[in-house]
Write a structure and sequence with these properties.
Helices cover 5% and strands 31% of the residues.
Length: 640
């Protein structure tokens, strides 16, 4: 009797909490097809400068350290580097849900940040190198939404598990798999724990939950398969798996082990419920910077947008953005859905930003470009022995690129003529040229770098205005291939088992200043239907890192994250080294508000309306590439 009364009370409280005027943020990207867009309008251009802190929650789940992406790696540093707090919370049915870098999940009250429950999957983080969780997913049982586990929070873990959690209580949904979980390590070849992690929120379509995984870059050619798998979200039963091998090659061997070394899907997957499509962004095949041993079949789906039939797991269409990718120009961001009118025809589209700073706009039903794409000849000289190159690469004619495509010694920059000349000498000593100049033995300048251009946090798309907003990195890196017998120990990208290891670093002067000129980060608005850049502004500053007056120089560096857009015409974004959270006017690019956070916000914010108040929420906790300290701050803002 007491339990029944408690259940009825819980249902009543949930019903009262879910006002008809509430606007949720039900998925990582705001919707199942991404976009990071909200119809909320309470916070607008006239009052955004009045925002105050509403609440802040701290989990305690972070670790410091000074590991750098390009430092030598020891076994100890694999597990002592700083955490990356890259989560975007969701708000569903009167609760805010988010995961920590250690995969604990918290349910918070939307108005106060008070903890409702916490779930701990007990991941052994001493076995993991990159501790990161970008988000969780939500599923509601349409047949019986108020039952136990009628609302499920789905979590992917660093140790390769999918776990179903009751959204109301934080308890395991034990009927899912074995005690509420399934293991994605089944069917993979032998691997170390750090080689295979789930870091992005699972995708959900109907009664299916779908996940890929992050596979360690440039570690060895036979890393675990990049298979994408679908499970029944009620029972955890396996439904289908898709391993990105050539259609004429088997996806697994005779004992069911998926073919290793295939391109993985580490970023966020989108689903089109109306068309029954699961649309995935793929990485490039391993090892990332040398493809001479790939035998062609491993490249077939690499660096591509792939549409999979949700019912069967069969490929419906795919579009490749880079042929034979040896630059690590994989697809980093969630495929974003928007209906566009181009040349008088309105079509459902997929907007895909890339590390090259190029944007591909594809028909969602066919995969064909809606704006013209041109196959152009690309450099064919300078590749290492054993490598082969694609003679052409695809270049969209529209939208305009958000990044310059290549670099030469004449582009060298410096604060003074001394460091400018130093940078010019550095660029002359390595191989430079237009984009897709191959990695070489003496070193090749990558501009855009393997970190972008655009990365996983972009873009946001205004569904009404048909405007895309994206943050772009503009810093050159040198990538050098070295024969394995000459490779030093402890490299982060050893490419073990291939002919070459890879050594890479930002191209900077002895003062630590980039040799590619500022701005080193921009924020851009693009008209997706016309294909032109509406505005592009420098983004971020060096405040707190260099003395006055140089701190006003714009530099976001390697900072990851991305924007959201509201219907009231506001852009909210962190994603800078200086630790500020900012709001911009989507029509002009004018900065309207800023707030200094405790550390950098290397994530994508979100917004929701709860009981008449609009909140904007962002996680600030640094990143393994950030100069700012690790942390665990989830902060909500609202109007007074």
């Amino acid at each position: 009797m007491i339990r029944t009364a408690m259940t009825l009370s819980l249902i009543l409280i949930t019903a009262l909490a879910n006002s008809a005027d509430d606007i949720e943020w039900p998925a990582f990207g705001g919707a199942l097809g991404g976009g990071h867009y909200s119809e909320a309008t309470q916070i607008n251009k006239e009052n955004v400068d009045q925002l105050i802190e509403a609440w802040q929650h701290r989990s305690g789940d972070f670790r410091g350290g000074n590991a750098d992406l390009f430092d030598d790696v020891s076994e100890e540093s694999r597990t002592t580097g700083p955490t990356a707090f890259a989560v975007t919370p969701i708000m569903v049915r009167g609760s805010v849900y988010y995961c920590t870098p250690f995969n604990r999940v918290f349910a918070l009250h939307p108005a106060t940040g008070a903890v409702k429950w916490v779930f701990d999957p007990k991941v052994d983080t001493t076995e993991e190198s990159l501790t990161n969780c970008r988000g969780v997913s939500s599923w509601i049982d349409e047949e019986n939404p108020e039952s136990r586990c009628g609302h499920r929070i789905m979590l992917g873990t660093l140790d390769g598990r999918l776990i179903a959690i009751d959204g109301a209580t934080g308890k395991r949904c034990t009927e899912f798999g074995s005690n509420g979980e399934v293991s994605l390590s089944e069917g993979l070849n032998d691997h170390d724990a750090f080689e295979y992690n789930i870091t992005s929120a699972p995708a959900i379509i109907g009664n299916l939950v779908i996940s890929g995984a992050q596979v360690t870059d440039s570690y060895r050619p036979d890393v675990p398969a990049g298979v994408v798998r679908a499970y029944n979200i009620r029972t955890g039963a396996f439904v289908w798996g898709w391993n990105p091998t050539h259609p004429e090659r088997p996806q697994a061997d005779e004992v069911g082990i998926y073919t290793p070394g295939t391109t993985n899907v580490w970023s966020t997957i989108s689903v089109d419920e109306e068309r029954g499509l699961v649309i995935v962004p793929t990485g490039n095949s391993s090892p990332d910077y040398y493809g001479g041993d790939r035998d062609g079949h491993l490249d077939y789906y690499s660096s591509s947008v792939v549409a999979i039939d949700a019912a069967t797991g069969e490929v419906d269409w795919h579009y490749q953005t880079v042929h034979h990718d040896i630059w690590d120009y994989d697809i980093p961001a969630q495929p974003t859905f928007v209906d566009l009118t181009i040349d008088g025809k309105t079509r459902p589209s997929v907007v895909q930003v890339t590390k090259m700073g190029m944007t591909f706009v594809l028909d969602r039903e066919t995969g064909q470009p809606l704006h013209p794409v041109e196959e152009r000849p690309v450099p064919q000289d300078g590749a290492v022995p054993g490598e082969y190159l694609s003679p052409t690469q695809p270049f969209p004619l529209k939208p305009e690129p958000l990044h310059k495509l290549g670099i030469s010694p004449d582009d060298a920059w410096g604060l003074t003529f001394i460091d400018r000349n130093e940078c010019k000498r550095k660029l002359k000593s390595i191989q430079t040229g237009p984009i897709y100049t191959p990695p070489s033995l003496k070193g090749t300048a990558y501009y855009p770098s393997p970190l972008g251009g655009n990365n996983w946090g972009a873009p946001a798309v205004d569904l009404k205005r048909k405007i895309m907003v994206a943050n772009t990195h503009h810093m050159a890196m040198v990538v050098q291939l070295t024969p394995q017998q000459d490779c030093p120990a402890g490299l982060p990208f050893p490419q073990l088992g291939s002919r070459y290891c890879v050594i890479m670093a930002p191209i900077t002067s002895s003062l630590g200043i980039p040799c590619s000129g500022p701005p080193w980060a921009t924020l851009s608005a693009v008209d997706l239907e016309q294909g032109n850049i509406i505005w592009q502004i420098p983004f971020g500053s060096l405040e707190g890192m260099v003395p006055w007056p140089f701190h006003k120089m714009v530099n976001s560096g390697w900072q990851s994250g991305g924007p959201i857009i509201t219907q009231s015409g506001l852009i909210f974004i962190g994603a800078t080294m200086d630790g500020y959270f900012r709001a911009f006017d989507i029509d002009t690019g004018d900065e309207l508000w800023q707030h200094r956070l405790p550390t950098s916000a290397n994530t994508v914010p979100m917004t929701y309306v709860y009981q008449g108040n609009q909140y904007v929420v962002i996680a600030a906790g640094g990143h393994f590439t950030s100069p700012m300290p690790a942390g665990d701050y989830v902060t909500a803002f609202k109007l007074p």
